[in-house]
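Reply to dn_fold:

You asked what the input looked like. This is it:
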Amino acid sequence: MPGRMPPRSRRGFTLIELLVVIAIIAVLIALLLPAVQAAREAARRAQCVNNLKQIGLGIANYESSNGTYPIGVLKASANPASGNKGGNTGCAYYPGFTWADYIWPYMEQTALSASMNFAGPYNSVRNGTAFGSKINVFNCPSDTPNSPSPAGSINAPQTSYAGVVGLTDIYRFTWGSAANTDRCGTIDSEGVFGQANKSLAVSAITDGTSNTAFVGEQSQFLNEPPGSNFNFNYVGGWFSGPPWGATYWANDARPTAVLTMVPKLNSPANTTGALTAITNAGPFGTTQYSLGNTPDFANDPICTNNLGQWGFRSHHAGGGNFLFGDGSVKFVKNTTNLAVYRGIATVSLGEIISSDAL
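and this is what came back:
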């Protein structure tokens, strides 16, 4: 009887072989992860572009129905209860509605718009439902989420886009009582949404709608402190923070709804109060800052390089998306020449912008 063959021993992985396999897997993951992340960001950026196109359709539909573009911000006006039709008496009344509110019916948000009480101010109890509703098209998927608003504060959800006000700040720096007394001292600027309490017709955009930016990204800063809740476009104004009443960033004053293109795209926030040295009137001053005046808001290096709260910002690498008046969305690079960047902010200053300058 033949002898039985001894059973073969089953050989497993050695420790070295196992380590080699793990190392190969790690290398493959390291090679694939950037590609996956890049694909995800490309998808988010495409969604952001689509959001701006939808906003552009809303603005265009508003103009088609009303003959003008919407008001950028309905600022101080005569209080209807006072019976005053102009001047400064009763001008403490602040409606605060913005271009974003006015286009709701033209973005398939008719029911939400119907819940808005435009006869009262933004913080009327009757506006709680409207201002507390989130419209997804106003949020870039690359933007980081903020925290909920604290109890008793404005319950407006986070948004990622702001209208272009031009080159003059309409919020924080005062011109005194002499400017536009028939409109309660509101400040005119050079952008399509910058002429406070006035609306522009297409004919006013003599620079051409294809050369004029209407809306851009206003995502949170990359190093935004926890608890920040200031990015919203339903209410026009400026607020100190973030967050409400806290001091994470000293001297931070944050505008909403419309932004200037004076600071470079994605400029860091000013939190030092350095403007005190220029105006000698508090952290952000009370002196007029505008083109042709001293101190010159547009040409001051602090305002150009370190006042990111007043400017546009994006989480997309290398730049940000902007909606133009012809409905196109263009990616504007951080390295875009400053004169070109500011040129697309104005409606009628005659700047010549080449198609490849952005």
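The CA atoms of residues 13 and 61 lie 68 Å apart.
Hope that clears it up.
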